[in-house]
Design goal:
Helix content is 71%, strand content 5%. It is mainly α.
Amino acid sequence: MNIIFYIASALAVFATIKVVTGKIAIHCLLYLIASLLAIAVVLFILGAPFIAALEVIIYAGAIMVLFVFVMMMLNLGQASENAESGLLDKKMWIGPSVISLILLGEMIYVPLNQRAMPLTLTIITPAAVGQLLFTKYLLVVELAAFLLMAGILGAYHLGEKKKQVYHRFLKKGNDIK
């Protein structure tokens, strides 16, 4: 099991690096799906099969399909890729690099300086998760749904193109929406 854990972890890290460094947006989304699936394997090996299933169903399934459809709907071309690549100079890497180094330091410091605590196994059923989502955490679920809908509508309006209407006698196009 350890070898599978390390292989899945390496694949997750590799796919995530490809997401960040990729130049074609749809390829980055596909690498992100691969990364999420690898993380689901890691979660399953660590003994959290329900969380692994949620990872696959919610993130790799629903949300990533939504991202792929939004990318297809926007239909950004080569001109947008050229404009985006011009924005990435070396100064823009300073902030994310500093944040990443701080997080890496925390990830190294916390496990080394924390006392081991005994783990207690609690079984949480999908019904209990559903009851919590629609009672105690209902506001968070509704806010997430609202943000997803706002993202879809924003992507639609950004990707909407003006239609040309040609009059048969004037032979001149008028822009309408």
